[in-house]
């Protein structure tokens, strides 16, 4: 008797639809179909609204009572937006003042990371009850190995995807979109094809017809810089990228990146499902459209620095982590780079505290040369729940600071250091 034919590899990427906004709509269903953005402060506005209408259940609070984006002032960024708001060009990580110009009528709700984590744990528990091989990729997305799960091969995985979608909706009232493909690269792309509440199936034979017409940016890993460089060479679609030979890609983008692009354009990806993945650190960084000077571009750099710290704080709270090693990364006009790190005595995830400690790191870095990149990082991570359980004894601000390490020791007494503050 011959051995059974091995099952075809089927990997799913499941992405919750506008997750934060959808969780808020469970609380306030009267806002469904309206442009809603989540961001800004915590729940002070929400608490005031509830106090004003204390006699009413949440779902009966009048729509006219909710704060509007046009009335927001500050430097906060949008965490997410409903699909109705996205139609106006509003999106995640956009400054809220900028978003207010695009969609002033949008309703503004504050973030509630504890509630988002609660629903995140619920939908992931549902998935692992059905398909146990799941890779956690954040609060609202996962990879799932469908290969040997009952129903995982039927209709290319559509049957199992539909089952998981229904199970999540029945339990939480939330929708998700699923892409099923031979690997993680294609599955992630496929999960965007039929949003919201959609399913897309991709086979190896579909790469030319379904993947090659897409823009290169649709490949997870090709960012704006690489995309701009590709466009400079007349390469706008994945199919055009696939037409380039391996040696040209390696000569143009470097050996490692070029080889990866060569495979990615052909839909190749052999990365396994990682069942346990605790991050070592979480970071945010940005490259500038032009090199910036610490003195002449002080205001612009300061605003960027603050925004990076706010985005990092949101990432930490969204993923349920706190940290105690804060670091910064600088890349100069000549492509040299330095980092600085400081470890404090207690774990934090607050944007203002992160900026304060990151500022101390920055004051120890040389700022003679123009900057092309700025980054902020949090390390020595611990889950927020574990940090609370440890119940660290607070010693006051002066007792928190002690240097853990420095990547580079030069420039500690640089006269330009600290110009951003």
What does this structure look like?
The protein is 35% helix and 19% strand. It has 421 residues and is an alpha+beta fold. The protein has 4 domains: 11-16 and 115-208, 2-Layer Sandwich (Alpha-Beta Plaits), CATH 3.30.70; 19-114, MutS, DNA mismatch repair protein, domain I (3-Layer(aba) Sandwich); 212-265, DNA polymerase, domain 1, CATH 1.10.150.20; 282-402, DNA polymerase, Y-family, little finger domain (Dna Ligase, domain 1). Strands 9, 10, 11, 12, 13 and 14 form a 6-stranded antiparallel β-sheet that branches. Strands 5-6-1-7-8 form a 5-stranded mixed β-sheet. Helix 5 packs across helix 6. The model is unreliable at 391-419 (pLDDT under 50).
Q: Summed up, what is this model?
A:
Helix content is 35%, strand content 19%. The chain is of the alpha+beta class.
Write the CATH fold name of the largest domain.
Dna Ligase, domain 1
Order of SSEs, N→C? Answer: EHEHEHHEHEEHEHEHHHHHEHEEHEEHE
Question: Biggest sheet, open or closed, and with what strands and sense?
Answer: 6 strands, antiparallel
Q: Radius of gyration over alpha carbons?
A: 24 Å
Indicate the proportion of strand residues. 15-25%
Low-pLDDT parts are 391-419
- For the record, the count of structural domains works out to 4
Present the secondary structure layout.
Elements: E1 11-16, H1 19-27, E2 36-39, H2 44-52, E3 78-81, H3 83-86, H4 96-102, E4 107-109, H5 113-130, E5 134-136, E6 141-145, H6 158-172, E7 176-181, H7 184-190, E8 199-201, H8 207-211, H9 224-232, H10 238-242, H11 246-253, H12 255-265, E9 282-292, H13 298-319, E10 321-332, E11 337-348, H14 351-362, E12 371-379, E13 382-383, H15 384-390, E14 401-402
Parallel strand pairs: 2-4, 7-8
Antiparallel strand pairs: 1-6, 1-7, 2-3, 5-6, 9-12, 10-11, 10-12, 10-13, 11-14
Helix pairs in contact: 5-6, 11-12, 13-14
